[in-house]
Amino acid sequence: MENCPFCDAEVSEELIRFGGACPTCFNAIPGEEAPTDPGLTTDPGVVQQGESSQKIGSNLVPAVLAAMLFVAFALFLFGNMEPDDGVMSSVEDLTADVSGVEAREQNNRAVAESQALAAVAETERLVEEARLIEEAAQAEVTRVAEAAAAVVESEAVEPQEVYADRVPSVGFITEASPDDSYRDPATYIASNDPDVVTGASAIRRAIRGVISDNSGAAEFCYSQQNDRDLSGTWSVSFVVNEDGSTSEINVAAQDLSHEGLERCLRGKITRWLFPAIAEATPYSKDYNFRPAF
Q1: Which helix (DSSP H) or strand (DSSP E) does residue 26 occupy?
Q2: In contact, 142 and 216? CB cutoff 8 Å
Q3: What does the pLDDT read at residue 58?
Q4: Among 14, 92, 178, 197, which residue has the least CB neighbours within 10 Å?
Q5: What gap in Å lies between CA 93 and CA 87, rounded to an integer?
Q6: Burial group, residue 233, by CB count within 10 angstroms (0-12, 13-18, 19+)
Q7: Mean pLDDT of all residues in 28-33
Q8: From CA 30, how far away is CA 223, in angstroms rounded?
Q9: What are the DSSP E strand ranges found in the chain?
Q10: Pair 165, 159: CB distance under 8 Å
């Protein structure tokens, strides 16, 4: 093996002998025994071209090495270059904008879900409120119907014996000062007697007779309250006018007052009709109410 006269790289003996381009540095090796044709003359241009190729080959190696050094230096500068503040700011702003959009979308979804849940809850509340109103209305209709039926029943005129003993059906009404003298047929004055009742004793007996015939009114008023804890004594006072009507009606509780019971008793007494009497007469009576067990 021989060495290239330009780069000292190993080349073949034929290349040194006959000449040619070095495979390492690409310089043209002239050769020691260049082949010649006896019939041809050597062209000066060809010889000059070979010399130019040798010069180019000798200059190519430094150029390649310089290019490689420039590329390495450029890579070094790029790797150690600090980022531009403007570029970094733009990147940060873009990242912030993306984060803001995602946050707004998430907040909008949360608001939509909250509004949907609120709408469902409001619908359920309205349905429940409508149901309660319907139940209350039905209960009120039932109560009014029962009250109307009770009033009709209480106003109905039932045939009864004038002198029959009226015993309370539930046994919870008693008179504080009982007087059975009005039950004597010889002294009783009927309410439909056309004559005017005279005499204090006869008038009081006539008044007691009408009150006895209407004792069921007090029973009705007490039972209408539908309160098993309701008990006590109520004093009833009124004036029987000469035409048999009542006035100055007063119902007072001796213990605990009860507006419903007292209002009912006043209404019943207002409709009582007594016989005509010689003079207006005040009357009072105590009713003891207690629940029947």
Answers
A1: none
A2: no
A3: 57
A4: 178
A5: 10
A6: middle
A7: 78
A8: 145
A9: 2-3, 10-11, 20-21, 28-29, 174-175, 232-240, 246-253, 281-289
A10: no
**Cβ-proximal residues to 26 (8 Å cutoff; 6+ apart), any chain:** 57, 60
Closest CA to 215 of 260, 171, 257: 171
Q: Which long-range contacts (CB under 8 A, 24 or more apart) does 154-162 make?
A: 154/216, 154/217, 154/220, 160/213, 162/188, 162/190
Confidence of residue 103 (pLDDT cuts 50, 70, 90): confident
Q: Which residues pair with 288 in a beta bridge?
A: 174, 233
The pLDDT tens digits for 177-230 are 344 333 333 333 444 445 789 888 999 999 999 999 988 888 899 888 888 888
The model carries a pTM of 0.36
Helix (H, G, I), strand (E, B) or coil at 10: strand
What rounded mean pLDDT belongs to the chain?
75
Contact 172, 231 (CB under 8 A): no
How many helices (H) and strands (E) are present in the chain, helices listed first? Answer: 6, 8
Tokens of 276: 């005509």
Residues 6 or more apart in contact with residue 174 via CB below 8 angstroms:
287, 288
Paired tokens of 32: 């020691």
Read off the pLDDT of residues 50-75 as tens digits, 9 standing for 90 and up.
555 555 555 666 777 888 888 887 78
83: CB partners within 8 A, 6+ apart = none
CB 176 within 8 A of CB 288: yes
Q: pLDDT tens-digit profile of 221-265?
A: 988 888 888 889 999 999 999 999 999 999 999 988 899 999 999
> Is residue 270 a contact partner of residue 249, using CB atoms and an 8 Å limit?
yes
The answer to whether 25 and 61 have CB atoms below 8 angstroms apart is: yes
pLDDT above 80 for 77 = no
Mean local confidence (pLDDT), 20-43: 67
